[in-house]
């Protein structure tokens, strides 16, 4: 008995995991967040690992910023943590139930023998039936697949939001530049009109109209400056860094400087692929398969598990061994109808969720495509307006050089061209926004190719993630 007790104690102590406290400190996590920078060495190494053969650049384009977001963004860190939890649950699902040992010493007070103790022990060995462990493992594997697919889906969403945020910065910068240009032209025009007013060549109302237009432009400049600051803050949030991390960095907007190209002949095939292969759709399908395995498990639970109970009794100088009997649960009051009904209802629910998700994806794709087509139609009008204003400016310059028009007419023509450029910019940004929304809906890079290593980068653990 002493040997058996020592063996049990050693097994329990040697096999146990000990708790290690990891306190969560808001001040420490805040300091870590504030210290994040796009220049830190570990981020640069992370980017270099996934841009093999690419020359280091001092500018941040969409691809480099996407990798920075994959490294920093808390949404992706959360998706990875949830995948780790699902993977850890597979260990639980694969576990065999432990046997249990009962030791019962009895003291007999009215016995005359020298040994008034009787030692009885029994071992209970559970035996699962009907493949329950296999169903548990299959269900856990499907849930792990779903969690891993949601990592990829989260990465696509992060990239989509980042692209829109970077486009917002580009639009804010260009809008501010054009408004400042208009303000400069308006100031020169106002001076020229003041001179004409002093010479009695024009009425005061003409000067007042120009002054009001200049004041409105100056107000628009201040609003654009505010928008520029806000867009940088949104870009920092889309990356997962503090606003100070994006201040002063060189951003590459070359992707947005031209009108986007999309081969509309491929649209139907891309839509069909998205409705079958989008990562969130595949995750929903894995959830459904997990529900099927859960239903199979509950059906298997109708069949009782077995339990073998061999025993041993030490009675005075006798050793008594019991072969034990097999204990099983009798399905008298229920045959697991409730859990089976719950899992059947859950499976139906997930089937409906899958169809609803497909319908939502279809709507997202069609809306984004329609917006892109509409933006392309507006492009023709905006380009024609810009060409007309450009021709008018060239004509005005020739007339001023010939002495037939004064400088105020030239400034008016320059101002009209700048306004046309602003309208052209708006349509350009609208096209890029529609393309970004279509990319998010398709989970496919429809303009510039996604870095080939992006899908593997989504699985890369972030050593700086707050635990």
Give me the secondary-structure category: alpha+beta
N-to-C order of helices and strands: HHHEHHEEHHEHHEEEEHHH
Query: How many distinct helices?
Result: 12
Overall 3D shape:
elongated
Average pLDDT across residues?
85
Which architecture does the CATH hierarchy give at level 2? Up-down Bundle
Low-confidence stretches: 448-455, 461-467
Fourth-level CATH superfamily: Outer membrane efflux proteins (OEP)
| Cα separation of the termini | 46 Å
Largest pleated sheet: 6 strands, antiparallel
Rg measurement, Å: 36 Å
**Named CATH topology:** Outer membrane efflux proteins (OEP)
Estimate the strand proportion: 5-15%
Helix content: 55-70%
Structural summary, described in words:
With about 475 residues, this protein is of the alpha+beta class. It has one domain (about 55-95, about 130-300, about 335-450): Outer membrane efflux proteins (OEP), CATH 1.20.1600.10. Helices cover about 65% and strands about 10% of the residues. It has twelve helices and eight strands. The protein has helices at about 1-15, 25-35, 40-50, 60-70, 75-95, 130-200, 205-240, 265-275, 280-300, 335-400, 405-440, 455; strands at about 60, 100-105, 115-125, 250, 305-310, 310-315, 320, 325-330. Strands 2, 3, 5, 6, 7 and 8 form a six-stranded antiparallel beta sheet that branches. A two-stranded parallel ribbon has the order 1-4. A hairpin with a 2-residue loop joins strand 6 and strand 7 (about 320). Helix 8 packs antiparallel against helix 10 (about 335-400) and helix 9 runs antiparallel to helix 10 (about 335-400). The longest helix has about 70 residues, at about 130-200.
């Amino acid at each position: 008995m002493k040997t058996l007790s020592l063996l049990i104690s050693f097994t329990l102590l040697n096999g146990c995991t000990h708790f290690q406290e990891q306190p969560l400190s808001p001040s420490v996590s805040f300091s870590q967040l504030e210290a994040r920078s796009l220049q830190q060495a570990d981020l640069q190494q992370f980017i270099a690992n996934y841009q093999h053969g690419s020359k280091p650049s001092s500018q941040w384009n969409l691809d480099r910023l996407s990798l920075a977001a994959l490294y920093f963004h808390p949404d992706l860190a959360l998706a990875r943590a949830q995948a780790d939890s699902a993977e850890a649950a597979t260990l639980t699902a694969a576990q065999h139930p432990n046997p249990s040992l009962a030791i019962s010493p009895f003291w007999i007070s009215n016995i005359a023998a020298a040994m008034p103790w009787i030692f009885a022990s029994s071992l209970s060995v559970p035996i699962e039936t009907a493949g329950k462990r296999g169903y548990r493992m299959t269900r856990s594997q499907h849930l792990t697949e779903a969690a891993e697919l949601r990592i990829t889906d989260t990465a696509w969403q992060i990239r989509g939001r980042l692209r829109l945020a970077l486009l917002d910065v580009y639009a804010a910068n260009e809008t501010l530049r054009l408004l400042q240009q208009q303000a400069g032209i308006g100031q020169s025009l106002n001076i020229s009109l003041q001179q004409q007013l002093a010479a009695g060549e024009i009425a005061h109302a003409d000067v007042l109209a120009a002054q009001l237009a200049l004041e409105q432009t100056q107000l628009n400049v201040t609003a654009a400056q505010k928008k520029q600051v806000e867009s940088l803050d949104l870009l920092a949030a889309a990356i997962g860094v503090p606003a100070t991390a994006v201040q002063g960095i060189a951003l590459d907007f070359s992707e947005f400087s031209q009108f986007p190209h999309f081969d509309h002949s491929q649209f139907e095939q891309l839509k069909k692929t998205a409705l079958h292969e989008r990562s969130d759709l595949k995750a929903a399908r894995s959830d459904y398969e997990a529900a099927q395995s859960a239903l199979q498990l509950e059906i298997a639970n109708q069949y009782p598990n077995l339990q073998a109970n061999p025993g041993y009794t030490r009675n005075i100088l006798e050793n008594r061994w019991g072969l034990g009997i097999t204990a099983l649960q009798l399905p008298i009051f229920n045959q697991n109808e409730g859990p089976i009904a719950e899992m059947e209802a859950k499976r139906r629910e997930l089937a409906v969720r899958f169809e609803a998700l497909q319908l939502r994806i279809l709507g997202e794709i069609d809306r984004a495509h329609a917006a892109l087509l509409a933006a392309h139609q507006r492009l023709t009008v905006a380009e024609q307006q810009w060409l007309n204003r450009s021709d008018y400016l060239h004509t005005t310059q020739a007339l001023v050089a010939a002495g037939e028009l004064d400088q105020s007419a030239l400034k008016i023509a320059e101002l009209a061209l700048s306004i046309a450029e602003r309208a052209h910019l708006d349509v350009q940004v609208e096209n890029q926004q529609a393309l970004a929304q279509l990319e998010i809906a398709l989970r496919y890079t429809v303009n510039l190719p996604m870095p080939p290593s992006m899908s593997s980068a989504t699985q890369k653990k972030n050593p700086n993630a707050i635990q």
